[in-house]
Amino acid sequence: MTAPVPEFPAGFLWGVSASAFQIEGSPTADGRGPSSWDAFTREQGRIKDGSHAEVATDHYRRYREDVALMSELGVDAYRFSVSWSRVLPDGHGQFNRAGLDFYDRLVDELCAAGIAPVPTLFHWDTPLALEERGGWLERDTAERFAAYASVVAERLADRIPMWITINEPAEVTLLGYGLGEHAPGKELVFDALPAAHHQLLAHGLGVQALRAAGARQIGIAASHSPVWTAGDSDEDRAAAELYDTLTNRLFADPILTGAYPDGLDSLLPGPVAEDLKTISAPLDWYGVNYYNPMLVGAPTPAGASAFGGIEIPSGLPFAIREIEGYERTDFDWPVVPDGLRELLGTLRERYGDRLPPLYITENGCSYGDGPDSGTGRVEDARRIAYHDGHVRALHQAMAEGADVRGYFIWSILDNFEWAEGYRQRFGLVHVDYETLARTPKESYAWYRDLIKSGR
Predict the structure, then answer these.
(1) Is 168 among the catalytic positions?
(2) Domain spanning 13-454 has what CATH number?
(3) How far is CA 346 from the centre of its chain?
(4) Per the annotation, where are the binding residues for substrate?
(5) Quick one: which residues bind substrate (predicted)?
(6) Mean pLDDT for each consecutive 10-residue tract of the chain (455 residues)?
């Protein structure tokens, strides 16, 4: 048994998360077009277990069952994503009414259950027709995104209390265009930087489009990690500072300050100074996705380094080092709850009064616990310990001055975990991928009790 969690403020929002490609399945059921991830999963060797997401957890057909699980859990909000290619099969042009109808039904189901719908407009699944024309390397994709945001908002804005434009532009840039580990599988290294700028521009144009359509409470979900320096040398400190710039400040600075970190403007395409005015349009809140710190030092003679099964190529001016002395998830990520407190303090110090209210839009862990053969229970004590530690760290950060308004667990369901396929399980609810049966885990009961006690 864990000690009672400290009391959170009245109105603090407790939520769960998921994304369209990872859970929906039914890729063509209503006329959805293919996405970059559909193409990526068909390439030999891209997905580690050789799987695909054509069924995933079948949320497209089972969404009522999944909303009922959320209702029983007692969450205030569900953060989901809209499949861009389900709404606009080619990424632009005529919208797909049947695809929009699905999200209409989902939003109505959530509202009827008293759960706030919190849609993310882009969670990595670029329409393939746009990807084949260059994807996020092309400025046109940002403009197409704004038109898509308008279509979705015009249908749903009357029932949506919070919006997220884009999820983790850093991962799309670094893993999708820089290292080739995610869709679209390009290995451009530093030549991937235009993808960062165009996603940020899409965010800014999307904010404009959403507000024009009557949307309210608009934010972004950005991944952030504390960056720890691996050694005491000037080389180690410079390497860690560069990594922090490329993974944290490159994405937060333009949004929150209207400027890129020194020296990066010249590496980015287009009228950057004018674009920054759009990118830095005031937000109602800022979303933080946190999983673990990163330990970074100068490159070593050994060359390549790795983190979480992703190889960092040699020749870069930094190297990822192993964080030792902490428990690890099944994804081999270190469990460092206090890193969340540290991160929120760094954001406050770095951005001051330019930092809007915060939401923790993702925090979660992968553990492979399954149903007991005798009782059918999924006893995932490690997941409970993980979230208990992070919620306590969050509470401490708030006591130190962080203005955090809510916390979303990643994720409600086990799902298709991108390049890992079905090998990693992040859910509060276990999914049998053969029968698609849902089994709430012990962590589900723990979160339900936490929410209830908080109210």
Answers:
(1) yes
(2) 3.20.20.80
(3) 20
(4) 22, 123, 167, 291, 410, 417-418
(5) 22, 123, 167, 291, 410, 417-418
(6) 81 98 95 98 97 98 98 98 98 96 98 98 98 98 98 98 98 97 97 98 98 98 98 97 98 98 93 98 98 95 68 86 97 98 98 98 98 95 98 98 98 98 98 98 98 82
